[in-house]
Amino acid sequence: MIEVSTVIAVVEDDPEIGALVTALLKREGFEAEWCRTGEAFDRLRERRRIDLAILDIMLPGEDGLSICRRLRAEGEVPVLMVTAKSDDIDRIVGLEIGADDYLPKPFNPRELIARVRAILRRTRGAQRVSSSITAAERWQFAGLLLDAGQRALTGSDGREIVLTGGEFDLLAAFLAHPQRVLSRDQLLDWTRGRDANPFDRSIDVLIGRLRRRLAEDPASANLIKTVRGGGYILATAVERA
To answer: What DSSP letter does each residue of 119-165 carry, written as one string?
Structure first.
């Protein structure tokens, strides 16, 4: 049973599709808010906590990709991209900038609801690994310092390296299992929940994003190694600070 407090923003300028998706979500027990533009979505976020944003790519004014990029920079509102474009490039770009899933139009309403539920289950279970290391408080590795309580990463030069929630959870999983090969399935389980599709490649996208964050500190480049046929490994020692 979906809690009544689950708020989903439908950011869609097409009146027929916007009304249809909003009504569908409400019938399934969600609180659905329809926004025709990015500006309307921002006004909604000022007064409501958003549990999931369903974003169309083609919007008047700011497009869905730009909104998704902002959401990833500001926090961890899960994003489902819905668009008439079926080009693989659009899908890849959406996932690269942080979308949790992608659904092309026209779509089956049952598939939309299934994907919404899966994203909510994954993101609601994403704190398991990060919370398990919070008690350790601070970790040192390769000249960096992670303050788990503050969810802050400091580089060797003293500057903060800003991480999204997903990037923090992934790094927490590596710090909890340093110098060990971790499979994609393990990382999906620990950071996003077991409801992910077995062929879900989002963990690879997230690995790439985390590598770029760590590379902001020259002393920390290439810390996460790819193990062919095995997964990934944090190739450095980790100590409690």
So the answer is: HHHHHHTTTHHHHHHHTT-EEEETTEEEETTTTEEE-TTS-EE---H
Q: Is residue 14 part of a domain?
A: yes
Residue pair 52/76 in contact by the 8 Å Cβ criterion: no
- pLDDT tens digits, residue range 24-78? 999 998 999 999 999 999 999 888 778 899 999 889 999 988 999 888 777 668 8
pTM confidence score: 0.54
User: What tokens were used for 69?
Assistant: 């990029």
Tokens of 57: 């790519």
Tell me how far apart the alpha carbons of residues 115 and 101 are, in angstroms, rounded to a whole number: 8
Structural domain includes residue 187: yes
Instruction: Report yes or no on 165 lying in a domain.
Output: yes
Give me the number of domains the chain comprises: 2
From the CB of residue 34, how many other CB atoms can be counted at a distance below 10 Å? 21
Is residue 82 assigned to a domain?
yes
The DSSP symbol for 218 reads G
Separation between Cα atoms, residue 73 and residue 59, nearest integer Å: 20
What are the tokens at 49?
């906590």
